[in-house]
Design a protein that fits this description.
The chain is an alpha/beta fold and about 200 residues long. It has helices at about 15-30, 75-80, 110-115, 125-135, 140-150, 155-165, 170-195; strands at about 1-10, 30-40, 45-55, 70-75, 85-95, 120-125. The chain contains seven helices and six strands, in the order βαβββαβαβαααα.
Length: about 200
């Protein structure tokens, strides 16, 4: 088993929480794990990116070579396009369709989404709307993790336990809401895969 994932987004969108859940699930399943993060100006809405490499064999570098990522998981649509050069020919892009407009010259949203939808293997989801429907727009990162989960060879139960672990200090209600968000995202991808 080997899975190289590029996580991309903007500061405050929960990229590092996604990486923590995936890391927990990998360790729980005795997998090797390497991670490299770039925080940029994350506190000011800058780009945040994380390389996450999972394998059942030792991993010698935390960087993903160009054209090798099985998955780009992006919580912001423009950020998903930034890392396309890392995507393997049979890789998937899982992206939020809701932009985080934090610059005055943000590109045309319709053109960004058209480019994304023209990719051969893509799951595009309005994570904010889905998260709002399950209880809190701030859980959109867990919606995105759920949407990506069918493409990551980790047991569902381990991902759920990772969510429980990272939100444990915030109480049972917060855990339940984030689990609902995760499952709503997963259901979205499963519907697309079953078409």
């Amino acid at each position: 088993m080997k899975c190289d994932i590029v996580l991309a987004g903007v500061g405050g969108q929960g990229i590092l929480s996604i990486a923590t859940v995936l890391g927990f699930a990998a360790v729980e399943n005795n997998l090797y794990l390497k991670q490299a993060e770039t925080h940029g100006m994350s506190q000011r809405g800058g780009a945040v990116q994380s390389y996450l490499r999972l394998s059942d064999k030792p991993i010698f570098s935390d960087l993903i070579p160009s054209g090798e990522a099985q998955l780009i998981l992006s919580v912001e649509p423009l950020e998903s396009l930034r890392y396309l050069s890392f995507l393997s020919p049979d890789g998937y892009v899982i992206t939020n369709t809701t932009p985080f407009v934090n610059i005055p010259d943000y590109p045309n949203e319709e053109e960004i989404l058209k480019t994304i939808r023209n990719l051969p293997r893509v799951v595009a989801i309005d994570a904010e709307s889905v998260a709002k429907n399950v209880g809190n727009v701030k859980s959109s990162n867990m919606v995105m993790l759920g949407a990506a989960s069918p493409f990551i060879d980790l047991p569902l139960e381990s991902l759920e336990q990772g969510i429980r672990e990272i939100f444990a200090k915030k109480g049972e209600e917060m855990i339940a809401m984030n689990l609902r968000a995760f499952h709503a995202g997963r259901a979205w991808s499963e519907r697309i895969l079953n078409r």
